[in-house]
Amino acid sequence: MTYKNFTVETDADGIALVTWDMPDKSMNVFTVGVMDEIEAIVDAVVADEAIKGVVFTSGKSSFSGGADLSMIRGMFSMVEEERTKDPANAVQKLFDGVGRMSWLWRKIETCGKPWVSAINGTCMGGAFELSLACHGRVASNAKSVKIGLPEVKVGIFPGAGGTQRVPRLANAQDALQMMTTGQTLAPQRAKAMNLIHQVVEPDQLIPTAKQMIKDGLKPVAPWDEKGFKAPGGGIWTPASAQLWPAAPAVLRRETSGNYPAALAILKCVYEGLQVPFDTGLRIEQRYFTEIVQTKEAFSMIRSLFISMQELNKGARRPAGQPKSEIKKVGVVGAGFMGASIAYVTAAAGIPVVLIDRDQEAADKGLAVSAKLVTDAVGKGKLTKEAGEKLVGLITATPDYSTLADADLVIEAVFEDRDVKKAVIEKVEAVLPEGAIFASNTSTLPITGLAKNSKRPADFIGIHFFSPVEKMMLTEVILGKETGDKALAVALDYVAAIKKTPIVVNDTRGFFVNRCVLRYMAESYDMLIEGVPPVMIENAAKFAGMPVGPLSLNDEVAIDLSYKILKATVADLGEKAVNPRHMELVARMVEKEERFGRKNGKGFYEYPAKPAKKFIWPDLKDLYPQKKADDVDVKVLQQRFLATIALEAARTVEEGIVIDPREADVGSILGFGFAPYTGGALSYIDGMGVKNFVALCEKLAGEYGPHFAPTPLLKDMAEKGDTFYGRFDPYGAVKAAA
C-alpha cells in the first residue's frame, strides 16, 4: 500500500522503517489525513506476519512540531458547531473527538509488535506522545534535537497520553516540572529522566533503533506488565506525601491561578497514578475535554499558536511583491542596540556593516556582538566554528561608502531628530536605488523622520526590543508614504532573523510603547494614591504580568521616562501629561538621582550579587500610605489590565493597528500582557465588550477619565460586536455603522 505522507520499507530482518515525510511541508505536522494513515500502517503491520517490528522516524531535518493549524482550528470549530447543532450531546462528541490521538497511540502500544521511535530533530507535543507510546525511543545527539510537551504554553496540556506516560517513566516531581512549564529537553536530559532509552550519533540512529528490535525488545509497555510501580512508588509513599500537598501551592505561586491547563496536569497525574493505565487515559481525556472549552485555551491557542504562525508566514506581507533576497545589511549606530541588531542579522547568515562615528566606536559595537557570540558558545547554543563565522560576517567601520551595495540599512542612533536627520542624509548619499532605509526609533513618528529622506516610499520603521537576541517581537511601522516594496523587504528581513512581526501605522510610541507607558502610568497613579509599592508589584503579577510596572520602569530607565514625558509636553502641550506623574518622575531623577537599574537605584535598590533587588524603602514615604487592608487587590489587577486593553482599543479606533492578531501577539510578545487572556483585545472579547465597557465606566468613576470607554467600544457593546468579528483579520470585515 502507498501512502501520501509516509514510506514503509521492510528489510531482510522483517523490520519496517516507517518514514514520515509530508510533501510540500517544511515540518511534519499532524492532520486528520496523517492520523488516518498512521492507523492504516498500524493495521497493516499487525496483519503482516513477515513484519517483526517497526522503526518510526522522520524524513525531514526535524521529527515533528505537533498538530497542524487546520487540526487545531478544527478542534475549536467542532466545539462551536456541536454546541449549536446538538447541545445535549456536544460534550460527548467533543470527548470522543479529542480522544482520537490518545487511543491511536494506545493502539500502537498494544499492537503486539515492537515499535521504536527514532528521533532525529525537534520532537514536540503529540509527536513526543507518539514516541512515548513506542516501546523503544532513540534520539540523535545533534544540537537540533529538542524534545518536549509545550502544550501548556498555548493554554492546553498533553492530552494524548503525556500526563500518564511521563510520570510512569520519570519521577513525579520532574514530570510535573516538565509539563506544567512546557520545558524543552535536550536528548541527554530526556534520557536522564528515563523518557528515552539511548542517545546516539546521527548516523547511528536508524541502525540502533533496528538493533533494539533485533535484541528482542518486548512489545509491552512497562505499565502493562504485572506488578508495575511508578518511579518513587506512586502516590501513597512518604516522598509523595511531601510532594503533593505542596504542588498546588507551588503552581499557584508560579501562575497565580490564571492557567487552568496547568492545574489540570496536576489533577491528571495525581488521579491517573492511582488507577490502571487505560482508566488514567480516560481521566486525561475528560480533563482535556474540559480545558479545551475554556476561554483561556481558545484565546491562547488563537494568539500564541495560530496567529503567531500566520504572522510569521507573512500574513501582512503585501501581495504581488517578489520575495526579496537580502544579501547585505547596514546598521548605523554601534551602541548596544545597534550591535545586537548586527548580531541577530549575522546569526541569520547575512553579512552586516556596523557603522559608527569613528573606528573606535564601531569596534566597541563589534565587541558587543562578539561577547554575545561568546556567551552563546559557552551555553552550547553555538559551536566555536559557527561563532567565529558569525563574527566574521560583521564589518565594523566608520566608512559610509561601504553601504553602497546594501539592500537594507537600519539606523539605531540616539533618539534625537537632528542626529537621525544627519544619519539619513549620509546614508542616502551612498545607498543604491531601490534599497530600503529603516529607523529603529522607539518613539519618534516615522512620517516625521521620513521628511528628511529623498525617497520616503523606501523609508520604514523597524522597531526592535531589548535584548534583541532574546525578544521575539519586531514592530514594523508604516509612514504615510511608505511603499509596498519597503514593507515587503522589512517583513522578509524580520522573517530571515526569525522574529515575529506586527505591522502598525505611524503614531507616537507606535503600539507596544503606548501600551507599556499606560501600564507604568497606572502604577504612578497608585503610588500617588498611597497604595503600598509591594502591593502594586504583586497585583500586577497576580493579574498575569511577568514583571511589575515599577520593576519594568527601572529596566526601561526612569530618566528615559522623564525624557519621554518632557518630549510629549514639548510636542503636544502640558495638558498631554499628568502633572503629578511629571512631578513624581522628576523627583526620582533630579532630586533622588534614581535612574533605574542602570545606576543601581530606581524604584528598587540593586545590591551587589548574589543579594536580590528590593523595593527602595523610602518610596513609601513619598506619599501618605494606605493600610493594606483598605486596598482591593482585585481592583488593582483590573486597573492594570483594563488600562492596557483600553490603549490597545484606542490604537484600533485610530487606525494604528488594523489587525487584531497583531494587537494580541504584540501585547504578549512585546511586554508580556497576561498571556492567559490571549492578548489585549482577546481580553476584551473574552470578557465581552459590554462587560468591559461597564468595568471601564466603573473604574472611570473611581479612578479618573483615562478609563472612560471610547466611542468605538460603546458602539461595539451596543451591537454585540467583538474585535475579531468587526475587524475580521481574514478579510470578512464588517462595516462599522
From TrEMBL:
Residues 328-507 form the 3-hydroxyacyl-CoA dehydrogenase NAD binding domain. Residues 509-606 form the 3-hydroxyacyl-CoA dehydrogenase C-terminal domain. Pfam families: 3HCDH, 3HCDH_N, ECH_1. GO terms for molecular function: 3-hydroxybutyryl-CoA epimerase activity; enoyl-CoA hydratase activity; long-chain (3S)-3-hydroxyacyl-CoA dehydrogenase (NAD+) activity; NAD+ binding. SUPFAM superfamilies: 6-phosphogluconate dehydrogenase C-terminal domain-like, ClpP/crotonase, NAD(P)-binding Rossmann-fold domains. It catalyses: a (3S)-3-hydroxyacyl-CoA + NAD(+) = a 3-oxoacyl-CoA + NADH + H(+). InterPro entries: 3-OHacyl-CoA_DH_NAD-bd, 3HC_DH_C, 6-PGluconate_DH-like_C_sf, ClpP/crotonase-like_dom_sf, Enoyl-CoA_hydra/iso, FA_oxidation_alpha_subunit, NAD(P)-bd_dom_sf. The keyword Ligase does not apply. In the central section; belongs to the 3-hydroxyacyl-CoA dehydrogenase family. This is 3-hydroxyacyl-CoA dehydrogenase. Its EC number is 1.1.1.35, 4.2.1.17, 5.1.2.3. GO terms for biological process: fatty acid beta-oxidation. The keyword Lyase applies. Keywords: Fatty acid metabolism, Isomerase, Lipid degradation, Lipid metabolism, Lyase, Multifunctional enzyme, NAD, Oxidoreductase. Pathway: Lipid metabolism; fatty acid beta-oxidation. Coiled coil: none annotated. The lineage of its organism: Bacteria, Pseudomonadati, Pseudomonadota, Alphaproteobacteria, Hyphomicrobiales. It comes from Allorhizobium taibaishanense. PANTHER family: TRIFUNCTIONAL ENZYME SUBUNIT ALPHA, TRIFUNCTIONAL ENZYME SUBUNIT ALPHA, MITOCHONDRIAL.
